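Worked problem 6 (solution included).
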Amino acid sequence: MKTLACLLAAVGVANLAVAYSPIIDGALADVRIKVVDDMGEAVPDATISVTFYTAPEKVDVKRGKTNTQGCFSAKGLCIGEVHTWIRKDGYYETKADPVFRVLPDKDAEKHRKWSNGTVETVAVLKKKRNPVSLAFKFIEYKRFPATNEVVKLDLEMLDWCPPYGKGRHDDIHMVFDGWRNPKDWYDFHAHLSVEFPNCADGFYRRTADTTSSCRYDYVASTNAAFEKAFDLRYARVMNAVTNRMEFAKDDYLVYRVRTQTNELGHVTHAHYGRIGEGVSQQIGSSMRSWFNVKDNDTNLEDARAW
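Solution. The predicted structure is:
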């Protein structure tokens, strides 16, 4: 019986060479991470780990501390991904994905490295300033108690106001209109209108910091342009989305509610909070709310629920 090698030789592929590829075989990644705080100052003695992916499901991890300039350098074979985790007491843990692939593909293949020299990435390690316990509530697919009528929601309790729930403050007004085809689960539309009812109530939009465990702003801005209302829409027909008006994936809302003003229109009393990213209304309301129960306190640095 002929061996596989003989069979391959017979068809002329005995000397077939497999071409080198940096994203399959790996190439040298050379990185330096400069760690600074949220004021731009270097953070020395931070614990850092740099993970080089050397093959599918295989990694090479370099660990150490940042120097007096807040820097840490590492080299390793890599097939295309490098991830960094950084932590220090008194700071919020952060991650960074260093940009290390700077050479054109042909040069990376020729020289078997991703860069000529060290590539530096700056990572921000946010300080813990003044964390407090905010009133945190979470709902997922909470059914709207009525359609095409105003229902009121208490953002501190995250519950409907009477007659549909036990909420005590009508912080936002919501009108939901939804329909689903009883014969096709994926054929439906949903429209949600949200309004902040009181004078000077409202919200402004921010984008979450997805690299840090402190994803949100420390405080609410009292000088922001607070909007009064927003709409969300989603519709599908035959498994195709036909209408979609939603917040971006990492958007969150900072709100001001229960606001009172004086005769000059200046805010004299208010409560601040935020609605986390991921608010939706497709088959019910889904949202996370952090509410500062202290009057006129703009602090949104929550001690428990980042």
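Discussion: The chain has three helices and 18 strands.
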